[in-house]
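Hello support,

Our group uses your service weekly, and this is the first time we've seen a run hang past the timeout. The protein is LLM class flavin-dependent oxidoreductase. I'm not sure whether the cause is the sequence or the server load. Input pasted verbatim:
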Amino acid sequence: MSESQQPIEGGQGTAPKKIGDIPISVLDLSQILEGHTAADAFRNSLDLARHAEKWGYNRYWVAEHHNMPGVASSATSVVIGYLAAGTSSIRVGAGGVMLPNHAPLVIAEQFGTLESMYPGRIDLGLGRAPGSDRRTSLALRRDINSGEDFPALLEELRGYFDASKTSYHAPLRAVPGEGLDIPIWLLGSSDFSARLAAYQGLPFSFAGHFSPDYLDRALDVYRSAFRPSETLAEPYVMLGVSLIAADTQERAEFLSTTMQQQVIALTRGRPGKIQPPADLSSQLDPLELSAVRKRMESAIVGDRAAVERRLHELMERTRADELIVTSGIYDHAERLHSYEILADIAIPAGKAAR
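Update from on-call engineer: The timeout came from a worker crash unrelated to the input. Re-ran successfully.
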């Protein structure tokens, strides 16, 4: 087993950690900008992944969403292959694959293929939500449930990777996939997957960037119920964070209006492409203003000093073992600069020299 394939080192879960002492990762939706195409989105994602690798980020994840004009990462495993082929050392994975949308055998084969092509670099994060609306869920699954079958699907998927449970006489085998060491994460925005990850002894990634109200409960459930496993001796939490950094506080706040417009579009039930920043002061009704304020409460937006202060506060509160950061900025150069500022704050210089 290579060094990159060693089991994740669990966090202590007691003493607060410090920025600079934990890994920092990137969460990307391959956002499609207004006036641009999905092809442009993929090129921008690869460019960001290459910069993230150079700056010392730990992993680069893309997420499965469907029927959303501003998100190009619907065929998640295909995008992962594209990003892995264009980089050389950064871990690449799904944050995540919505498992109830797929046959577990297909996911085992897809990620077995990726791991065979890019050994020691592939992560498989799994969620139980549909990643879209009810109509799209019907098109994907042909039936609707609230994720009750997720534990059974997870068990089936993990069985395909476990060579001890299969043989040449087994009725179903994942080829490639069987016997490969692919880290599996559970993703969640409530305490359901937190509890399941704890019982299974798996690492847990919480979507703090869009579900902050459940953060404290989910982390408490995961840590208190955690059962050590062959995968993980201690609980390991990766926390999703929305972060926009710029040279000035004013510039960062202006850039954040792109993210605010996404919240408004979802509130109106009309998701679209990613919009350039704009003055929104006269465009919001009370309901939309409340939704925007709620979403922005958990976002870290500011200049270097403000970002550094908020990151330290977040670590004091959550004791996260890793942060995975999404930055919904319209201009690609500005998005790169935001991640560069974060790297300068949070990633020791030696880690960038890969």
